[in-house]
Amino acid sequence: QEDIDAGSFTNTATVTGNFGTTTATDEDSDTQTLTPNADIDLEKTGPTSVVAGSTINYTITVTNTGNVTLYNALVEDPFLGFSYEISMLQPLETETFTGTNLTYLTSNADIETGVSNEATVEASPYANEGNDSETGWVRASDTHHVQVTASPPPPTFYTLTLNVSPAGSGTATANPSQSLYSPGTQVALNATAAPGYVFTKWIIDGVEYTQQQPTITMNSNRIATAYFEPVPEPVTYTLTLNVVPPGSGTATAAPSQTAYAPGTEVVLTATEAEDFFFDKWIIDGVEYFPTQLTIVMNSNRTATAYFDEFTDIDIEPPPPEAGDEEEEEEEVMPPLPETGGSLATMYWGAGLMVLGLALKRKKQ
Question: How many CB atoms lie within 10 A of CB 268?
Answer without folding.
Answer: 22
